[in-house]
Amino acid sequence: MSTTVTLAVDCMGGDHGPRVVVPAAMRFLESHPEVFCILVGQREPIERELARYSGVASQRARIHVASEVVAMDESPTLALKHKKDSSMRVAINLVKEGNAHACVSAGNTGALMGTAHFVLHTLPGIDRPALVAVLPNMRGHTYVLDLGASPDCKAENLLQFAVMGSTLVSAVENRERPSVGLLNIGSEEIKGNAVVKQTADLLRASDLNFVGNVEGDAIFTGGTDVIVSDGFVGNIVLKASEGLSRMVRTYLTEEFRRSPLGWIGALFAWPALASFKRRVDHRRYNGAILIGLRGVVIKSHGSADRLAFESALGRAETAVRTDVLGRITARLTPATASQAA
Amino acid sequence: MSTTVTLAVDCMGGDHGPRVVVPAAMRFLESHPEVFCILVGQREPIERELARYSGVASQRARIHVASEVVAMDESPTLALKHKKDSSMRVAINLVKEGNAHACVSAGNTGALMGTAHFVLHTLPGIDRPALVAVLPNMRGHTYVLDLGASPDCKAENLLQFAVMGSTLVSAVENRERPSVGLLNIGSEEIKGNAVVKQTADLLRASDLNFVGNVEGDAIFTGGTDVIVSDGFVGNIVLKASEGLSRMVRTYLTEEFRRSPLGWIGALFAWPALASFKRRVDHRRYNGAILIGLRGVVIKSHGSADRLAFESALGRAETAVRTDVLGRITARLTPATASQAA
């Protein structure tokens, strides 16, 4: 691997498009001298944003024109079928052709997953991709997968997710044998549906550091490096957590505004509230990896601001530098072979 | 129905047993003159707590002795098989025999669900029970089911859950046609696994006010009266939300303690923080209904304090007074007949 990491950045995706993505890429380049960004999308709006940057960092960015844009609410199937020159598709193609190490997009999740799967295909030994995110918890953070790439899973798929998650944490956190938990409705072995029980059997027989079933609260109370579930459960849990966080934020703000001492209170409480906000700041955790494909694909939250999108770019760079995909391939190829034997 | 509602209260369940349950029952009786409580459990610890109450309310309580206690971590199967004289079992028997209108327990969830199902059986037209809780959200609250009684569900089960949830909300919230959402990974009809898609078809064909698929965040952003899922997904979402809430509480407390201005800040911010706490106080929402059985069974959180257990008692009384079970039976019997036709 060369020392320069090249990222294909879909500039048209997300709620804000180039207005957020281009400044985020420029900021990221300023602090990461060994990264090169290919800014993919319509020339005019990207150039307008780029015009504000004249430093040396901008010499490590170039525009790659793509004429079409996948809308946030567009049907993933139609986008895949008809928008062959979308910024998203072109960014993924750059990875496929070896012109970029990874691609990052804040675009339509379904379209990104569908297109990436279609263009890049899965790694040897992997049947389905998974979306992994890092979620903050009381003792650090946990990698949770799948968050929605593969809603209908068999036990073999979940085993593969566990291997991918474990390898990812080994690589990017430099951890020897990450602990792996299986998301379930109780810690006892008899709990759960048929697929989950079968998965637990496979995990116990594997060489992973399987710690058994974990319940939903384990995601946030912490203590497990990797938590595995199918994409149906994972996505609903993720969305519910986002909803609950939004409720807490809204309520806190409302109460500080409503109370007579609220403003003074907020002033004195500012350091504590700011520090609290920093700790749970979802922007620092932005950037889910669509793992299991022959190329690194990072999904940023659609509403990401500049800081959040920078986190997603950082996630991409780290995944490339630590060779996550190479490690997964190395690990899964013999594992699958020995299973088949 | 008589104007007096009789509640069978399992005094031995939960983390605190009679120390919390008996005072909660006494407080509840004081504020609810048309309620009678049968305090089920070991005579001595219950009497010790009762001794502190001499008011008229205590005349509406009597002890019903049960010699055994189901431990919080005991196997539900073993409890069901061997502890025929547990406080939990006896409390459920009182409902079965018509000596109490409802039973309330903070005991072992699995044992309570298993025993209640075994003793009471399901209502006509219902194949499986569901655990329903009321969760607070940004626009009020939502009834979510199933939270863990039936982890493996077919579409027919989920349809029955929707009917039960809708009838429950009609009864206790006095609402004409409650909106019903199906928990899924996207609002489009093509989303989700096979069971969910089939359920959506059944719901669309039903006479319920079905508003379509809802994503996980809808639980907390609000706007839907009833949200339906199988017990596997529902339980994991509930536990994850509990974990996230605990994390937020812990972080907020830590930050106020850590910051130099933290204590002063907390002082000035007190009204806002207290009001915030009240709004999200899970104790007010304590008391999940195990619905679909031939008797009202309420599960209190194991860690419930007095206030929380009072909420659970209130939930039981309301369910009895509004004749939730009678309404479900009336609604489901012809519905099932017409479906079979």
Q: What is the C-level CATH assignment of the largest domain in chain A?
A: Alpha Beta
Q: How would you classify the helix and strand content of chain A by structural class?
A: alpha/beta
Q: What about the largest sheet of chain A? A: 11 strands, mixed
**String of helices and strands of chain A:** EHEHEHHEHEEHEHEHEHHEEHH
Which consecutive residue ranges of chain A, at least 5 long each, have pLDDT under 50? 336-341
> Assembly type of the shown chains?
homodimer
Q: From the 3D structure, determine the CATH topology of the largest domain in chain A.
A: Isopropylmalate Dehydrogenase
Q: Quick one: CATH superfamily of the largest domain in chain A?
A: Isopropylmalate Dehydrogenase
Overall mean confidence score, pLDDT of chain A: 91
TL;DR of this structure?
The first copy, chain A, is of the alpha/beta class. Chain A contains twelve helices and eleven strands. At the A-B interface, helix 8, helix 9 and helix 10 of A face helix 8, helix 9 and helix 10 of B.
Structure description:
- Two copies of one chain form a homodimer.
- With 341 residues, chain A is α/β, with parallel strands linked by helices.
- Chain A folds into two domains: 1-126 and 292-341, Isopropylmalate Dehydrogenase (3-Layer(aba) Sandwich), CATH 3.40.718.10; 134-282, Isopropylmalate Dehydrogenase (3-Layer(aba) Sandwich), CATH 3.40.718.
- Helix content of chain A is 48%, strand content 17%.
- Chain A contains twelve helices and eleven strands.
- Chain A has an eleven-stranded mixed beta sheet, sandwiched between helices.
- Mean pLDDT of chain A is 91; it is low at 336-341.
- At the A-B interface, helix 8, helix 9 and helix 10 of A face helix 8, helix 9 and helix 10 of B.
